[in-house]
Amino acid sequence: MAQYDVVVIGTGPGGYVCAIKAAQLGLKTAVVEKRATLGGTCLNIGCIPSKALLHASEMFSEAGHGFEKLGIKVSKPKLDLPAMMQHKSDVVDANVSGVAFLMKKNKIDVHQGAGKILGQGKVEVTAEDGSVSTIETKNIVIATGSDVMPLLGIEIDEKQVVSSTGALELEKVPGKMIVVGGGVIGLELGSVWNRLGSEVTVVEFMDKILGPMDGDVSKNFNRMLKKQGMSFKLSSKVTGVEKKGKGLAVTVEPAKGGNPEVLEADVVLVAIGRRPYTEGLGLDGAGVALDERGRVAIDAHFKTNVDGIYAIGDVVAGPMLAHKAEDEGVALAEILAGQIGHVNYDIIPGVVYTQPEVASVGKTEEELKAAGVAYKVGKFNFSANGRARAMNYTDGFAKVLADAETDRVLGVHIVGFGAGEMIHEAAVLMEFGGSSEDLGRTCHAHPTMSEAVKEAAMGCFAKAIHS
Fold first, then answer.
1. Alpha carbon distance 10, 99 (integer Å)
2. Whole-structure pTM value
3. What is the pLDDT of residues 218-267, one digit of tens each?
4. Is 446 a catalytic residue?
5. Burial call 395-422: b when 16+ CB within 10 Å, e when fewer
6. CATH code given to domain 350-461
7. Of 154, 264, 288, 405, which has fewest CB within 10 angstroms of its CB?
8. Catalytic: which of 65, 342, 424, 446?
9. With respect to CATH, is domain 3-148+275-336 assigned 3.40.50.10780?
10. What is the pLDDT of residues 32-56, one digit of tens each?
């Protein structure tokens, strides 16, 4: 029977990063993974493949609509969907192979099969062929991630009614697609198929898309997506999906009740969120407690109520983001090695990888108002940014929120080309308690999109120069 210091169940971003860090710190480490490949949902059927399709569809759209303005004449681009899907698969293969290499490099044992916690210090692994083995360890880390949240009464067949998994595998562009849910996943995948030629309608229960994000961002981004051809039904809910010939009849009602309408669709994408994945882990038998939302309950050091059992990532409270899981994985490995591990949950950036991108870190205006915090706002439009004009990417803005008294930056929100890359200077600034003046007086290269972030900061403590 194998003996380890740490056994991590699940090899998504949280799990494999935790395992690598633990091994780097000298702990004998193993991972348990039920998939044939490592990397979890993120690398196999989530973050990575979706970004491959987002980029490819953006290039397709740019070739068809953006080249001429730059003086580039090409014939109308033709979509080769199988080749685009092959690109996606190649990207996935490269990434999961990379994780497998890192396991070998760091001398981490990989146990292929479904993991079940038998109790303190014991994990049972059931391989695909049915064979069962048991491994012993001082510490168990639950990093099993999350699964698709189902919509009550709607059966997902991954052909016509799909989750994010099926939406990444469609064999042809649907004539009409209805996306249930105006969150990150729904908007990203909806925008992919919209760019490739589908007529996309988003049905969102709330009165705004991107619910937790800054209201200013949501309103303006909604307008941008409409310009791209996407339609929205806000404050609405899908109450039924029925087969109708080769298509689907989708019943939509006002969120607060009222007269229903029936919409036609070829594909319905259910993207109303994700839920912690704890199935088959044996948590009941091991005595591991869950919270009221079915997440593994942990303390400030990622420990469950059972000694030697810990949990990180989507399976615990907090934003379901790969980078949050990674940071938790590193922090936990440090704790298990006797060091001090910590995650600052106030400064975790969020990005929507559409075109333009949306990126956010820290507090929104709505959150500051609700908390009674006096704040200042600096905002700068990319339409006044030289680099944005040069690239024809003038949609969007950068917005900085700072404490009215101390000038400490409390939140930064960006809608624009490359927003996901620009948000990190704000994250670093906020991590060190920086002010809008610190950011506004930091020299930025010209011409760059990032100058808009500097100008927004200047608008907080003084005045922007170029607006």
1. 13
2. 0.96
3. 999 999 999 999 999 999 999 999 999 999 999 999 999 999 999 999 99
4. yes
5. bbbbbbbbbeeebebbbbbbbbbbbbeb
6. 3.30.390.30
7. 405
8. 446
9. no
10. 999 999 999 999 999 999 999 999 9
